[in-house]
Amino acid sequence: MAETIYLKTPLSDEDMEKLNIGDKVYITGTIYTGRDAAHKRLVELLQQKKELPFDIKGQVIYYVGPAPAPPGKPIGSAGPTTSYRMDPYAPILMEAGLKAMIGKGPRTQPVIDSMVKNKAVYLAAVGGAAVVVAESIKEAKVIAYEDLGTEAIRKLKVENFPCIVANDIKGKDIYVEGVEKYKKG
Amino acid sequence: MRKINVKDVIPVVRKLCIDSNYYIGNDVIEKIKEFREVEVSPTAKEVLDILLENYALAAKEKMPICQDTGVAVVFIELGQDVHLIGGDFYEAINEGVRQGYKDGYLRKSMVDDPIIKRVNTKDNTPAVIYTDIVPGNRIKITVAPKGGGSENMSEVKMMKAADGIEGVKDFVVDRIRRSGGNPCPPVVVGVGLGGNFEQSALLAKKSLLRALDEPNSDPIWADVETDILKRINRLGIGPQGLGGNTTALGVFILHKPCHIASMPVAVNVQCHAARHKSAQI
Looking at the domain assignment, is residue A158 inside a domain? Predict the structure, then answer.
C-alpha cells in the first residue's frame, strides 16, 4: 500500500530505507537543479578530483530547466525533464554521495543498480505539471554555470515538493511493475 | 492583390507564442476528464487530476503550462493574392517569436548548433517554419510549441506495402510502447503515412493540429485511429508511465499518395500539453 512520506533534506540512509515504489513523497529543504550540460561538468570535476560547487552528500538533484521567473515569483514554470539523458552521469554522482534524483521517465539498469548499491532513490515528478511544482519552490538562486542559462545549477528552497517513488533501494521499478499491473493482453 | 506589411505579423506571432503556452485547448481538458472517469489505477487518477489542476493554475497565474515551452513551430497558410511588403517575412516571424518568448517569460530552448557548439541562442529563435500557398488573400498563422521530451520519441520508418495496414498499426503501437514514460503520457500520437521520407514526418507533425474532439472525416481512417488508440491504451503505460489505462488521448492520421515502391510511416509523439493556437491576418 502506497504511503505518504514527508522528507527533509539532507537525506539519510534511514530516510531511504522507509521508501517504497509508489509512495507519495513531499520534500522540504534545499535541493539542487541540474540537467545534461551541468551533469557533464560535475562529473568532469569528480574525475579530476576537484571540488563540486555544492556538497553533494545526502543531497537531491532535480532534473529541470525552469522557465524565467515572472515578476514577483521566485521561479517560472519548473516541471521535470526526461531523466534517461542523465543516466551516463548519475552513478558517478551517487558514488559521491547523491541520495535522490527527481525527474520523469524510466532509468536504465546501471542507474538502478547504483541506487541499490549507494542507498539512493529516484523520484518521479509529474511532467507537464510545471506550475503546480513551481508553487512548492520558495527560493531559487543560480550557484554555478550561469553561462548555461536555464541549464545552470540552481539552489532551490522547497516546501512540500510533490513526487512519487519510482525506484527504491530494493531495486524495484514502478515503470516496470506499474505497467505490468495494468497491461492487458 | 492585398498588401500586408510583414511588421503586422510580429505582434500576432508574439501573442500566439504566449497564448499557446499559457492556455491549453478545452479539447485536451475534456478528453483528460473523459479518460479519468474510466481510469482504474489510483496513481493514474491522481496524476490526471494534477494535470487538470496545472492547466487551470497556468491560465490563472499566466505562466507556461510546461517549463519546456518548446521549439516554436510555425505553420503559415499564405493566400496567393497576398503581396508581402515592408521586409523579410520569415524574419518578422522570428521577431514575433523573440518578443513572445521574452515578454511571456517562456524558456529559451534553442541551441545554435546541434552537436559541436550547442550554445543557447537566448531568444528561442530560429522558429521552425512551414509555408503552404493557398487560395485567397489572407494569412493564417498557427504556432505549435513542441517540447523536446516527446519529440525525442518520434520516428520515421520506410515500410513495405506488403506490411499492410496491420503492419502500420503494429509499428505505431510499438513506437509508443518503446517510449514508455519518457514523452509525458498521456500522449497524442501524430501519424503521417505516404508521401516520401520527409513528407511523412511533416504529415505526422501537421496531424497534431487537429482537435481531440474532432474525428477523422473519413470513416475508414477513423476506424484505424480508434483501433490504434485502443491498442495503445492496453499497453498499461499510463499517465507518466507509472501504470494505468490512459496512455494516449488520441491518434491522428494524415496520408498522401506515394511511390509504388514505398510506404513511409512517421510517428510524431506529442505530450499531453498538446499546444497550438491560430490567428488570421
Answer: no
Report yes or no on whether pTM surpasses 0.80. yes
User: Tell me: the pLDDT tens digits for B250-271?
Assistant: 999 999 999 999 999 999 999 9
What is the share, in percent, of chain B residues with pLDDT greater than 70?
A: 100
Report how far residue A180's alpha carbon sits from residue A125's, in angstroms, rounded to the nearest whole number: 21
pLDDT tens string A49-81: 999 999 999 999 999 999 999 999 999 999 999
Residue A128 to residue B271, Cβ atoms within 8 A: yes
Task: Specify which residues B144 forms β-bridges with.
Answer: B73
- A123: domain CATH number is 3.20.130.10
Asked if A106 and B180 come within 8 Å (Cβ–Cβ), the reply is yes
Instruction: For residue B181, list its beta bridge partners.
Output: none
| SS3 (DSSP) at B58 | helix
| Contact between A182 and B236 using a beta-carbon 8 Å cutoff | yes
B contacts of A135 (beta carbons < 8 Å): 57
- Centre a 10 Å sphere on the Cβ of residue A158 and count the other Cβ atoms it contains: 22
DSSP A65: -
State whether residue B33 is helix, strand or coil: helix
The rounded distance, in Å, linking the Cα atoms of A159 and A138 is: 7
Best B17, B242, B246, B247 residue to mutate vs chain A (most A CBs within 10 Å): B242
Searching chain A, which residue's CA lies closest to the CA of residue B63? A77
A163 contact B CB<8A: no
Grid cell locating B150? 516527446
Residue type for position A1? M
- Residue A34 structural domain: 4-151+164-182
Q: Which residue of B has its CA nearest to A173?
A: B242
Cell numbers found for residue A99: 541520495
pLDDT the model gives residue A1: 63
Q: Which residues pair with A8 in a beta bridge?
A: A28
- Assigned domain for A159 exists: no
Reduce the DSSP state of residue B18 to 3 states and report it: helix
Window 110-149 of A, Cβ < 8 Å to B = 124, 126-132, 134-135, 148-149
Write the ipTM.
0.94
Give domain status of residue A41, yes or no: yes
Collect the ranges in chain B with pLDDT lower than 70. none
| DSSP 3-state percent helix, strand, coil across chain A (nearest 5) | 30, 30, 40
CA distance B136 to B157: 36
Residue A155 bridge partners (DSSP): A32, A141
Q: How many domains are there within chain A?
A: 1
